[in-house]
Write a structure and sequence with these properties.
mainly alpha, 3 helices
Length: about 70
């Protein structure tokens, strides 16, 4: 039950944030559908993908393969 506290707290914070945004007149549907926001999200996603492929993937996969050898087989 302790593990669910963080998840439930996160969900509650998201719901409260959405209520507050609605109270101040922000429409998330319009914001997300905006071409500028779409372009920004695509730009950030491209950067994240490049970082993953060039810097993070090889060490992360090596670490996963190394550590997974120590995990018990089910």
């Amino acid at each position: 039950m302790k593990g669910n506290r963080g998840f439930i707290k996160t969900i509650l914070l998201i719901v409260i944030a959405l209520i507050v945004l609605g109270f101040f007149g922000y429409n998330l549907k319009e914001i997300v559908a905006s071409p500028t926001v779409h372009d920004n999200l695509v730009y950030v996603w491209d950067i994240v993908a490049k970082l993953w492929n060039t810097l993070i993937a090889t060490p992360a996969l090596w670490m996963w393969n190394t550590l997974s050898g120590f995990l018990p087989k089910s």
